[in-house]
Specification:
It is a single chain. By secondary structure, the chain is an alpha+beta fold. The protein is built from seven helices and 14 strands. The protein is 32% helix and 26% strand. Helix 1 packs antiparallel against helix 2. The relative contact order is 0.14. The mean pLDDT is 93.
Length: 274
Amino acid sequence: MDLDHARAVAVTAAEAAGELLVSGTRGALGARPKGGSGDVVTELDLASEKLLVERILTAFPAHSVIAEESGLLGAADGEWTWLIDPLDGTNNVVIGLPAYVVGLALCRSGRPMLGVVHDPVSAQTWSAIRDRGAITSSGVRLAPPHNPSPHGPLLAWTQGYSVSRSDATVRAIKDALELNARRMLQLWAPLLAWAMLARGDIDGIVGYRAEAVDLPAGALLAREAGIEIRALDGGPFEEGIDGTPDDRSFVATHPSAMPGLLDVLRGGGAVSRT
C-alpha cells in the first residue's frame, strides 16, 4: 500500500469537500434531526460525504469505507478501511459558527495508518502517516511545544452521542477538569480539537466514549505530532476502530503534562489508577 499516494488522494478529496462546504454554508442548510440525542444532519453532510466516498472508492475500489452518514460501503471485510467524517461540527454550522472540519482516516486491520484533517474556514490541511510524523499542507512538521501556564491547562472535552446527561462518570470528570483547567472548550467538532492540540493551540483533550468515525484520524495526527494519549486510568490507549465505546475514553496531552493531568482526574475521584 502506497501511503503517500493515499495521503495525496485523501488531501485532494478533503479539500474539494471543504470548498463544497464553504459554498454551501452561504445558503439554506436543510437541517433535520439525527438520532435521539439532539444531533442534526444537513444536506451539506450528505453532499460532502458523497463527494468523499466517490473519490476514495474510485481511487481504491478494493477498500472498505465507513462513512458517518452512510455506514459501511464498498468491499466488506477488507484489510484496508477508510473512515470518513464529511462535516465534523454540523451543529456549529447550523447555528452559524464557523468551526468545522473534514476528516479521513485509512486503517489497516482496524489500526489507523493515515489521518487527514482539513479546515475549510482557514483553508489549512494537516496529515499524518504512522511512524512518519505529522505535517501541514506545506510540508512543515508539527511538533507542539509544552508551555505550561500557572493558571492551569487549556483543555478540550469530547464525548460520544450515546452518553447521557445523568452519567455520573462524566460529571465527576468534568468537575475535576473545570476546577483545575484555565479553560475547558466544548467545540462540538472533535477533529478540530485534535488539530488544535497537534498545532499546540491547546494543552490537552479529554474524551469519554468518543465516536469511532472521527477518533482515529485526529488521534493519529496528534500522536505523530508528539502528543501522548492514555486511557483515563493512565493505561495504554489504542486509537483503532475495534472495541467498545468504553475503549474510546482517553487523555491526550504533551508527555511532560500527562502525569499532572492524570493526577487531576484521580484527585477528583473521576478515575482510579491502573
